[in-house]
## 1
Amino acid sequence: MRHKFIYRNLALAIAFLFTLATYSQDGPKWVELFNGKNLNGWKKLNGTADFKVQEGAIVGIAKLNTPNTFLATEKKYGNFILEFEFKVDDFLNSGVQFRSDFKSPKGPVYGYQFEIDPAQRAWTGGIYDEARRGWLYPLTYNPQAKTAFRNGAWNTARIEAIGNTIITWVNGSPCSYIEDDLSPEGFIALQVHSIGDEKDAGKTVAFRNIRICTTEPEKYRTVTENGKFADIPEINCIPNTLTAKETSEGWQLLWDGKSTTGWRGAKIPTFPTGGWSIEDGILKVHKSDGGESTNGGDIITDRKYRNFILKVDFKITTGANSGIKYFVNPELNKGAGSAIGCEFQILDDDNHPDAKLGVKGNRTLGSLYDLIPSRRDGDFTFRKNDFNTAMIIVKDNKVEHYLNGYKVVEYERNTQMWKALVDYSKYANWPDFGNLAEGHILLQDHGDEVWFRNIKIKEIK
Amino acid sequence: MRHKFIYRNLALAIAFLFTLATYSQDGPKWVELFNGKNLNGWKKLNGTADFKVQEGAIVGIAKLNTPNTFLATEKKYGNFILEFEFKVDDFLNSGVQFRSDFKSPKGPVYGYQFEIDPAQRAWTGGIYDEARRGWLYPLTYNPQAKTAFRNGAWNTARIEAIGNTIITWVNGSPCSYIEDDLSPEGFIALQVHSIGDEKDAGKTVAFRNIRICTTEPEKYRTVTENGKFADIPEINCIPNTLTAKETSEGWQLLWDGKSTTGWRGAKIPTFPTGGWSIEDGILKVHKSDGGESTNGGDIITDRKYRNFILKVDFKITTGANSGIKYFVNPELNKGAGSAIGCEFQILDDDNHPDAKLGVKGNRTLGSLYDLIPSRRDGDFTFRKNDFNTAMIIVKDNKVEHYLNGYKVVEYERNTQMWKALVDYSKYANWPDFGNLAEGHILLQDHGDEVWFRNIKIKEIK
């Protein structure tokens, strides 16, 4: 036992020296949030699951018939570096809130959550916006981080929340990286997730060595060898803006958030005079008769694009139909209806009849319209009442659709199989459908109210 | 002029020394077939185009309103090495017959032809069986040989016809390689092709330095560094046999040419007692009512196959329908109709109604039935009244169909696009259609008379 003690102190000393060398001669000024003995400084919110102190750790115990329970700090924190250790029983979802708040003592608690996810999905270290926007950074955006978490063992977590930049680490591996400005400060809270199955009652999640640095945290933040905060994909949650990282990577706003610059009607040389409006950084298609391009009509980019990553945030209304098209040739269809191109379908699958038409779901949300049904499994996420991110990646003939970071469609055009598929679809008689080297990008007016924002593109070689 | 003469003799001397070193201390005993002055030893057959002697070459002159004209040797030749030079005007097809004969002085001349093809297809050096079986070795079997021929210049040709092995070279590059036993000997003849357009009248093809070695030609045949006769794909035209080269490459007969060994009914444990017969090395499906598996029923291989190259020769009758299926699971369809698998369609496109059904030709000959139409362009060849070779290459998820050496279909299964395509087809409701790791190979009884032979397979890793 004595040897162990010496080794442990030696290890701590080495870690301390390493920290000195890495961060600063002084080192960060850590404050312990948990005294190792009792729950002084913490309060329980939202649910009725129990927390107890055991072997120097806070242990939360899963309980039936209660919503999520949180053990929150009395204090609020804005800019900080937070570190803690955690260990969780199999299949018990949990998380740590930060910059969070609650609407009444009985909840709901809302705000950023550092996800703890021992299930097969393995999104530990992802960022979920509890009781608000949902997933901000599912690990579909950074799949290699899914291996950082160790099931059934103690894991270390680190969160840097400095200004709009929030980055998480699990066992030293960067997991999530967002830019957001919704909540600049709030409490920190340990979650015991609600359970639906009696067999999970009594399962535990434990936290220890919870410490925070709020004194000049920007001085001690992580900086990688190449001068970045983390070498993982960044998700910018602030609509219609570009971060420095996005700009340096070649991203451009395809819509400025306020004017019609860069866009025109698909069949007219100017922007439609009606049927569309711009309010509070949102580009809205108006509700009309539900017809295809019968009101304001589709709008397209002035420019054509060849190889690119396109991101568009969209929010639907009940029963809505719309879409994002690419490789659009506005010269093809001079008659009624929408301009011709490949379409990332936007649809209220539950309430619009088109979801049940077509073949085996190939007209549902995220599908390549009338051609390839969008994949659905555990990782598929859609927010019916909030904005969602459609992403389309085109690299020559290879194309992928993503919905909220999850790949729903992939295909290769300009192949014999592609032609055979198109020949079965409603595009069969448009010449060489989908095989253009470059084309316009289109937002569809299908006579239903749909909101767009945060339209950005990165052209790739 | 004098210098030229010296250089030419020097070049000949060097060539002679090279020949000595390469082949034998004695060198092949060449006999000149053309004396450089007149057409002694040659006779004109079949057509009425003119041949004249000009600057030491035999020049054939294209003429309207005559069939192919041939200038043939009086003598016949069996085993030989033949060399000659040739030069041809743009777009004037020509060739050199060997081991050939004619049925009457007015023709038709028939037999092996060394192809001369200055058109874009560029099959010079291929082997065509004139007025008999058609293409034995189109350069689709060896596409890199298409660059050997030089348009508008003198080219050198070499033909080695020794036993059943016939190999051609153009300007030193091996072009065709067949194994055949149909005509062991015959005359050699220079072709002036018939023309259909007045603008081609007067175009010429010229031959010179025509020499043959019939004395121990096997002693002087080409042998490559690795001990083979040529490092190009060999086509074995002798049905139901394997050459030494095929055996060494791993080819196996999938049908022995005489028994039902290795095959059984798709829905019964034994070979069908009726509906099929074996005669003269040909496996015949009998004519019945044109229905799907209503007579003898489909037959399948006992074994399953995973990755392979499959070759099947087939000959249709008027209006016939049949097919070769692979990845067949005979357990799937226990009801009426054919067993379920991917099908290389066999059809008389001109006379069977199914050719016009389906979508945009996806039920025509060579198609992946009901899924992908077979490609048709200048290189597509089909012999309605003779045997054709279907070839199917499976490498994991990548599959290709060939008809007589020409790729008509290619696709990738176990992909999202494949599933979307299948979902549109008549296979939509068979579980996981076409995605088996391995399956049986099937010959279809569709109630029409179709002949099969020369069924061979090479399993690949």
## 2
Amino acid sequence: MKRKGILIVVSGFSGAGKGTLVKRLVEKYDSYALSISATTRQPRAGEEDGREYFFLQKEQFERKIAENGLIEYACYCDNYYGTPREYVERQLADGKDVILEIEIQGALKIKEQYKDALLLFVMPPSTAELRRRLVGRGTETEEVIAKRMRRAAEEAEGIEKYEYIVVNDDLETCVTQLHEIIIAAHNTPNRNQEFIENIRTELEGEK
Amino acid sequence: MKRKGILIVVSGFSGAGKGTLVKRLVEKYDSYALSISATTRQPRAGEEDGREYFFLQKEQFERKIAENGLIEYACYCDNYYGTPREYVERQLADGKDVILEIEIQGALKIKEQYKDALLLFVMPPSTAELRRRLVGRGTETEEVIAKRMRRAAEEAEGIEKYEYIVVNDDLETCVTQLHEIIIAAHNTPNRNQEFIENIRTELEGEK
């Protein structure tokens, strides 16, 4: 079967370790491309344009929206965040599985446009472990942690919208598991419509 | 996550190599149990009761039907074929993934009763290869082969009812792939409802 790239959306609770997981996946296997978001927020110290984000002016971002150049976007805290379409489509056409790290509203918007997109949800092994990781960062106040935990409770409502869950206990185990799930996902009928139709046409010819 | 067994239904064209594939899978990994069908047809030379089939009298089979002791059954060429419920349920409770090799009507009946059953469809790499395998058996007349090919065309209509397709080109590669698909299938939200509900309850407690 000719391999077509899958658009893979990774969501999960803040503190579940999505960012590290996705970075390691792309590092470890060469079948992936990581989509970089565009944003109008200011770069933080150490962030580089085209690495963490594409940093755009508000006018540039709004022009991209108008041109249908983003496959999804949202506005948080007065800043835009979005996924540039061109990079994603070029990589998919090239047979790469393209990874987007994005929250649930964006994930559902993408599924509407790309019906074969694969939606994955990263979970911590337990709530206690989630709290431990948030506290362990050492950068968050108790108030912020409480807010994150409440946000996680809301996000948990949407898990059934995702095709697979991935429990991030040990990083390397989880990366391997994620990779195997994606390989398996290449074998669903909807992602092999062309191969199936070819076999059908040939079998009709045998009648 | 506590592992619960999955009921796995393997269908596919006659000549796609389902039987060999399933036998090798169960041999290679100890997480599987192979369900043995009951039938009222006569044993063929070399077949053993409880290995290829449980060979039953018509009255015994009909008593099993009446007692709801079969999870599905059908009648072909005046003989009954069916899947005894007790073995399947005992193995699932024990955490084993139970494999049934069965055709599409049976597969759909099972999915109605076991909503978390996993439906897999085995395909040959091409129609030419399917024909080659049927001819290669050397036991079939041209008329039988033509009938099988027509039957395959009908079966191909139902592929979208299955969750995954597996292309059987090289046996060992295909066995590994089948195993990996099953491992991935353990990670869908519907098969982890208890784990997800636990996390939700804990997160609610954090509010």
